[in-house]
UniProtKB/TrEMBL annotation:
This is Sensor histidine kinase YesM. GO terms for molecular function: kinase activity. The chain crosses the membrane at residues 7-24, 30-51, 72-94, 114-132, 370-390, 396-419. InterPro entries: 2TM_dom (IPR025698), Bact_2-comp_sensor_kinase (IPR050640), MFS_trans_sf (IPR036259), Sig_transdc_His_kin_internal (IPR010559). SUPFAM superfamilies: MFS general substrate transporter. PANTHER family: SENSOR HISTIDINE KINASE YPDA (PTHR34220:SF7). It comes from the Bacteria. It comes from Chryseobacterium geocarposphaerae. Residues 358-432 form the 2TM domain. Residues 159-237 form the Signal transduction histidine kinase internal region domain. The keyword Membrane applies. Keywords: Kinase, Membrane, Transferase, Transmembrane, Transmembrane helix.
Length: 438
C-alpha cells in the first residue's frame, strides 16, 4: 500500500472515530475512545485495502483505456461482491469478537440484518467514489499519453514532409542545369530561351514548395510550361498529350509531382525522331495518370530514385490513398490520386484547435460537475440515513431521496461520459474518413 493511501485511511479513521465517539458514545472515556479508534481503524483499513486490491487488480488486467465496457461491468460486480464480504467480516469482528454484543446466531439473524445492509450501502457509496476516482486518474494518464504521442507524430510527420519538399529544389535545379549545359553546345539561342523559361518555372517551384497540395489546374499549367522546355531540347523526339477532365481542375494533387514524373520519363527512356517518346497526361477514375511508351535506355549510372519515391512518401503523409504504378512491355504508367478536399494531416488549423479545445473544456466541466455531484451524494445520503435512523427508525424515508438522486446521478454520468453518443462520433469519423479518401 502506498504511503499516500495509508495517510488518507488514517484521516478517515480519525474522522469516523470522532464522529462515533462524540455522537454515539454515552461514556466519554479514553478507553472507549481507544476501542472506537481500533474498530474504525479495522473498518477503514480492511474496506480501504480490500477495495484498493480489487481496483489495482482490475487496472492491471482490464485497464479503463482498453476495455472500458468490460471494466465498468467488472467494477460494479466486484464492488458489490467484495464489499458484501468485507462488511460482513468487519461487522462480525466488531459485534461478535471485539464487543461480544451478539452471538453467531444473533449476528446472522434478522436483528443484525438491517445494520449489515446499512453498512454495506455506505461501503458501496465510498467504494463507488474510489473507483470513479481511479477512472479519472486513468483517463488523465491516457489523455496525457495520447497528447504526447500525437505531438510526436505531428512533429515527425512535419519534419519528414519538410525533408521531402527540400529534396525538390536541388533535384529540379540539377536536372535543369544538365539540360541547359547540353543546349549551350547544341543551340546557344535556344539555351537563352531555355534560361528565361527556366527562371519562370523555378519561380513556380519556390512558390509551391511550402504547400502540401495544389490544384490540378495549376499543376497542369506548370507541366505544360515545363514540357515546352523539354520540346526545346528534344524537338520532334518527344511528344506530349494532355487529356484531363475539366471537372478535375479544381481538385488537388501533390505539387511538382508532374514535373518529377516527366523528368523520369525523359531520364529512363531514349527518344529519337524515328522513335519518339510519347507522354500522355490524362484523367482516369479519380486519378491523374502519366503514361509513356516504354523505350528503356541503358543506364550507365544507377538511378537515385528521388522523384517517384518522393511523390509516394508525400502522398502517404497526406492521404490513405496510394500511388499506383503499372508497367508492361509497351508502356509505363503512374496513377496519382486526385483529392476532392484538402486533407491537413501535418498541421491543424488554429480554428480547429480552438474548437477542439472548447469541446475538451466543456467535457472536463461536465465531468467535474458529475464528480462534484457524486461526492455530494456520498456525503449527504449517509448523513440522511443516520438522521433517519436516530430520529425515526420505524419510518425509513431516506430511501426515497437516495433512489431519486441516484437515478439523476446515473443520468448525469451517462451525459458526462457521452455514453450512448459514441456511435454518433464513430459514424462522423467514418464519414469524414470516407470523404478524405475521395
Amino acid at each position: 500500500m502506498k504511503r499516500k493511501s495509508i495517510i488518507i485511511l488514517l484521516w478517515v479513521t480519525l474522522g469516523t472515530t470522532l464522529f462515533f465517539f462524540l455522537f454515539f458514545n454515552n461514556e466519554k472515556t479514553f478507553r472507549n475512545f481507544g476501542i472506537t479508534f481500533l474498530i474504525c481503524t479495522m473498518y477503514s483499513f480492511i474496506l480501504g485495502f480490500g477495495n484498493m486490491i480489487i481496483n489495482d487488480f482490475l487496472n492491471k488486467k482490464f485497464p479503463w483505456s482498453e476495455t472500458t465496457r468490460v471494466r465498468a461491468f467488472l467494477s460494479i460486480v466486484s464492488i458489490i461482491i467484495g464489499n458484501f464480504i468485507l462488511v460482513y467480516f468487519c461487522n462480525y469482528m466488531n459485534y461478535v469478537v471485539i464487543q461480544k454484543s451478539a452471538t453467531i446466531e444473533e449476528f446472522f439473524s434478522a436483528k443484525y440484518g438491517f445494520m449489515n445492509w446499512f453498512t454495506i450501502n455506505i461501503a458501496l457509496l465510498i467504494s463507488a467514489f474510489l473507483h470513479a476516482k481511479s477512472f479519472m486518474e486513468e483517463l488523465k494518464k491516457t489523455s496525457r499519453k495520447e497528447v504526447v504521442e500525437q505531438k510526436l507524430i505531428a512533429k515527425s510527420a512535419n519534419a519528414q514532409f519538410e525533408s521531402l519538399k527540400n529534396q525538390l529544389d536541388p533535384h529540379f535545379l540539377f536536372n535543369s542545369l544538365n539540360v541547359l549545359s547540353s543546349l549551350i553546345d547544341e543551340n546557344p539561342r535556344q539555351a537563352q530561351k531555355f534560361t528565361a523559361s527556366m527562371s519562370k518555372i523555378y519561380r513556380y517551384v519556390l512558390e509551391q514548395k511550402d504547400k502540401e497540395l495544389v490544384t490540378v489546374e495549376d499543376e497542369l499549367e506548370f507541366a505544360k510550361t515545363y514540357c515546352e522546355l523539354l520540346k526545346t531540347r528534344f524537338e520532334d523526339s518527344v511528344d506530349f498529350v494532355f487529356d484531363v477532365k475539366k471537372e478535375d481542375y479544381r481538385r488537388f494533387v501533390v505539387p511538382l509531382s508532374l514535373q518529377l514524373l516527366l523528368e523520369n520519363c525523359i531520364k529512363h527512356n531514349f527518344a529519337t525522331s524515328s522513335k519518339p517518346l510519347i507522354i500522355r497526361i490524362f484523367s482516369e477514375n479519380d486519378t491523374l495518370c502519366i503514361e509513356n511508351n516504354l523505350q528503356v535506355r541503358e543506364q550507365i549510372k544507377e538511378s537515385s530514385g528521388i522523384g517517384l519515391a518522393n511523390i509516394v512518401q508525400r502522398y502517404s503523409l497526406l492521404t490513405k490513398r496510394n500511388v499506383f504504378i503499372e508497367k508492361s512491355e509497351d508502356y509505363f504508367k503512374v496513377k496519382l490520386p486526385v483529392l476532392s478536399v484538402k486533407p491537413n494531416v501535418v498541421s491543424t488549423p488554429v480554428e480547429d484547435k480552438d474548437k477542439a479545445y472548447e469541446r475538451a473544456r466543456k467535457r472536463v466541466r461536465e465531468m467535474k460537475s458529475f464528480y462534484g455531484n457524486l461526492i455530494s451524494y456520498c456525503i449527504i445520503i449517509p448523513f440522511l440515513m443516520i438522521i433517519n435512523l436516530i430520529t425515526n427508525p420505524d419510518n425509513i424515508w431516506f430511501v426515497f431521496p437516495m433512489l431519486g438522486w441516484g437515478i439523476g446521478l446515473a443520468a448525469h454520468g451517462m451525459s458526462a461520459f457521452a455514453i450512448g453518443k459514441r456511435w454518433e462520433e464513430k459514424k462522423i469519423r467514418e464519414i469524414l474518413e470516407k470523404e478524405n479518401k475521395q
